[in-house]
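re: that chain from earlier
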Amino acid sequence: MEEKLYFKPEHYGQKNDNKPKEKSEKKNRRIPKLLGFLLLIVIIVLIIIWLLRGKTTVSGRYPENVKTESLTCVSTELTPEKLSGADAKDKEVKINAIFRDVEELKSISLTYTLNYASSDEAYGYEAKSHAEFNKSLSASGYSVSKFKNKFARYDSDLIISLFAEKNELDQIAAPYFMLSVDKDGSIPGNISEYKKNYEAQGFSCESSIDK
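^ sequence. v structure.
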């Protein structure tokens, strides 16, 4: 009778523990990668925040302690020195000044409204007054775009507007905004001084601190 020999594999009947070990090792390798990726994201976000924050400087009083005040002065009789109102039926000059608190001027504007008998008359004066104003600017050493000047016509109305920041306003610029200058060349400082200056000329003035 033929004898059959059977050989068992070396690890026959033993459980294969390699697969769980391999999975564990792969999992352990993923954790540092994940942490590194999260750290990179955090760094990128911090860099973006730093770039977007801008530069902030604080001087003087805190912004929450500073209030904006305003002054409005109106006249239907006065004529701006630098802008004539020839042949206009009605005219109105309005000054609007904005102050940082009550002590410091921020900006000032002048609006001169002229009403004519017809739109053709307003059109003719628009061209004439614009040319004369440009000559005045040139004589003062300014460019024709100084004070953001605008000449706008609406039917029979001609509206001329000027605007200046505080740093633009000196003894040469003051007459363009109908400000009287002292003998020493100084101009008003606070809101009360501006109001007195305009009222002395015949303007009717009202400020936010009067309310």
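The radius of gyration is 39 Å.
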